[in-house]
Amino acid sequence: MKYLIACDLDGSLLNRQGELTKKTVEVIKTLKDMGHVVVIATGRPYSGAISKYEELGLNTAMITDNGGAIDNPMDLTFAKQRTFIPIHMMHGLFTFSKPFIISTFFSVDNVVYAYKYDKRLEEFFSGIHSDRVIDKEMTEFNVEPTGLIYLIDFDKQKDFEGFIDKEYGHTLSYRLWDAAKEYAIYEVYLKHVSKSSAIKYLLDHYEIDPKNWISIGDGINDVEMIRDAAWGVAMKNSVPELKVVCKDVTEYTHDEEGFAKYLIKYFNLNI
Fold this sequence. Notes:
Elements: E1 4-7, H1 9-13, H2 22-33, E2 37-40, H3 46-55, E3 62-64, E4 69-71, E5 81-82, H4 87-97, E6 101-108, E7 111-115, H5 119-126, E8 133-135, E9 147-153, H6 157-168, E10 172-179, E11 183-190, H7 195-205, E12 213-217, H8 223-228, E13 231-234, H9 240-245, E14 248-249, H10 258-266
Parallel strand pairs: 1-2, 1-12, 7-8, 12-13, 13-14
Antiparallel strand pairs: 3-4, 4-5, 6-7, 6-9, 9-11, 10-11
């Protein structure tokens, strides 16, 4: 029986230092050798995920940008999948939000397009910081993003959300990642796009029964793929929203090799 195993990176496969342990790599390679399809499903852009893909020795498709992009770096015949936010919506949201933006950016390939670029914000969402940053007003960009990151004034959350709901609610949605006394961090994305929608595409591509779909994650951006999977697993260190929709929770955190230990037990691996 062949499974599709969808794996989040940060907070799941990776430890607190953003590294893969030897045991995690061994588990992934063992599952691959058994004939299972192991797929990275991350919010990182391609440039922030490819090194982990290579370290794991994968040859399957990789989901990045929270489902906005699907690539197979090892198969040049694979038809790359991309979904983009319309440029006029990117421009409209920026124009409305400009008075209370602290920083905003999006990535395409190895280039970061930003307004008031913040290296820490990019590292949080991308896992890296780019050497190619174009910093100017978003209305000057004519590049379509797969998603947008906004860091705004804390007291403007209702205005920001209300504008998206009213003007672009039929097309766009948003996630609130964090809110403190001075700021709020949002991800803006296409409503129909998620890690789950990308995985469903790959289930069909690899001809795998949805009943054999396992997803493991920890963040708010993993809700759909954990909820929709036949067996959705939340990391012990996951956000509360994930534990409401999952089928199971790992016994250990990402800093305790919780991902690897869970799959060793689930598949009865001799590791």
